[in-house]
Design goal:
single chain, Carbamate kinase, 8-stranded mixed β-sheet, two-stranded antiparallel sheet, 11 helices, binds adenosine-5'-diphosphate, binds magnesium ion
Length: 306
C-alpha cells in the first residue's frame, strides 16, 4: 500500500465511559433547572485564590450554558478594607456589617463597583460566559433605605425595592449579570448593602429557583461538626447563643427571609472545595448546608441534594 494519510486506533484501548456516566447523572438536574434562575452570592476565599477564582468562573459559565439563568451578587470586603487602609481609613464591623461613613462609601463605590466587579466579569468572559458588570445604581436596580442601625452603621442600607427590569433583560439575552451591591435613595445618597442581604432580596424579586451562598466555610458549623440542614428555630438559637457569629449572621438571617419570600432552596457551599457549586447543583448528595424552615421527613430523605 502506498503511504497512508489515515490513522489507526491504538490496539486494545477501549473508550472510557465514566465521563459519560457523570454527565448523564447531571441530566435530570439540567432538565429540571433549564430556564430557571439561580442567584449566586460570591464571597470568601473563592474570590481571592487564583485557582478557585478560575474554577468559579468555569462553574458559572457551565451553569449558564446548560440554560440556567445565573445572576451573581458579589462581596469584596477584603479589597475594601485594603483600599481603605491605603487611604488611612479605619475599618470597623458591628455584627458582621461594615460601619460606613461618606469617605468609606466612596471607597466602596470605587473598589466594589470598579475593580472587584470588573475582575469577576473578565474572568467569566475568558471562559465564554458573557458576563456584564453592573451595580445597584444601574437602571434603578437597588433602591435602598437606611438600616435601623444607621446611628451606628452610617451609610449601610437595607434593600427597599429591587427593580428587576435590567436583570431580566440581561438574563433573557443569555448574559450573566454580575452585581455590585450598592444602593441609591431619592436624596442622592449611595448605600453600602451587605452582599448577602442584596442577594437574598434579588433572589426573591426574581422568584429564583435557588439562592446559593459561596463562602469560605464547609457549611454552618456547630462545635466541630458541619450541619447538612439547618432549620429556622435552631438558627435563631445558634445566633442567640453565639454559635453563629460575625459574617455568618447576615447569611443566616437573609436565608430565612429568602425562603419566606418564596425561593425554593437556599444553600451555603464552600468555594474552597473544587467544583462545589457544580456538585451542589448536579449531584444527588449535594455539599454544604441547606437552610429550611422546618425539617420534614422528606427533607431528611433528600438531604442537602438539589
Ligand atoms: N457557626 C458558624 N459556622 C460557619 N462560619 C461561621 C460561624 N459563625 C461565624 N462564622 C464566620 O462567618 C464567616 C463567613 O462570613 P464572611 O466572612 O462575611 O464571608 P463572605 O465573604 O462569604 O460573606 C466564616 O468565615 C466564619 O468565620
Ligand atoms: Mg460577608
Amino acid at each position: 500500500m502506498e503511504k497512508m494519510c489515515s490513522e489507526f486506533r491504538p490496539e486494545g484501548k477501549k473508550p472510557e465511559p465514566a465521563i459519560g456516566y457523570m454527565l448523564v447523572e447531571a441530566l435530570p438536574y439540567i432538565r429540571k433547572f433549564e430556564g430557571k434562575t439561580f442567584v449566586i452570592k460570591y464571597g470568601g476565599a473563592a474570590m481571592k485564590d487564583e485557582v478557585l477564582k478560575n474554577i468559579f468562573a468555569e462553574n458559572v459559565t457551565l451553569l449558564r450554558k446548560v440554560g440556567i439563568k445565573v445572576v451573581i451578587v458579589h462581596g469584596g470586603g477584603d479589597a475594601i478594607t485594603k483600599t481603605s487602609a491605603k487611604l488611612g481609613l479605619e475599618t470597623t464591623f458591628v455584627h458582621g456589617k461594615r460601619v460606613t461613613d461618606r469617605q468609606t462609601i466612596d471607597v466602596i463605590q470605587m473598589t466594589l463597583a470598579g475593580k472587584v466587579n470588573q475582575d469577576i466579569v473578565q474572568l467569566i468572559n475568558e471562559d465564554g460566559g458573557n458576563a456584564v458588570g453592573v451595580s445597584g445604581l444601574d437602571a434603578d436596580m437597588i433602591l435602598a433605605k437606611p438600616s435601623p442601625n444607621a446611628a451606628t452603621l452610617g451609610l449601610v442600607g437595607e434593600v427597599a425595592e429591587i427593580n428587576t427590569r435590567y436583570i431580566d433583560l440581561l438574563c433573557d439575552a443569555g448574559l450573566i449579570p454580575v452585581i455590585a451591591p450598592i444602593g441609591y435613595d431619592m436624596e442622592s445618597n449611595v448605600y453600602n448593602i451587605n452582599a448577602d442581604d442584596a442577594a437574598a432580596c434579588i433572589a426573591v424579586a426574581l422568584r429564583a429557583e435557588k439562592l446559593i451562598y459561596v463562602s469560605d466555610v464547609e457549611g454552618v458549623r456547630v462545635g466541630n461538626r458541619i450541619l447538612k440542614t439547618i432549620c429556622k428555630a435552631d438558627a435563631a438559637e445558634f445566633i442567640e447563643k453565639g454559635i453563629i457569629t460575625g459574617g455568618m449572621i447576615p447569611k443566616v438571617v437573609s436565608a430565612y427571609q429568602t425562603l419566606d419570600g418564596g425561593v425554593g432552596k437556599v444553600h451555603l457551599v464552600d468555594g474552597q472545595i473544587t467544583h462545589s457549586l457544580l456538585l451542589e447543583v448536579f449531584t444527588n448528595e449535594g455539599v454544604g448546608t441547606q437552610f429550611v424552615n422546618e425539617i420534614e421527613n422528606e427533607t431528611i430523605a433528600e438531604g442537602a441534594a438539589s
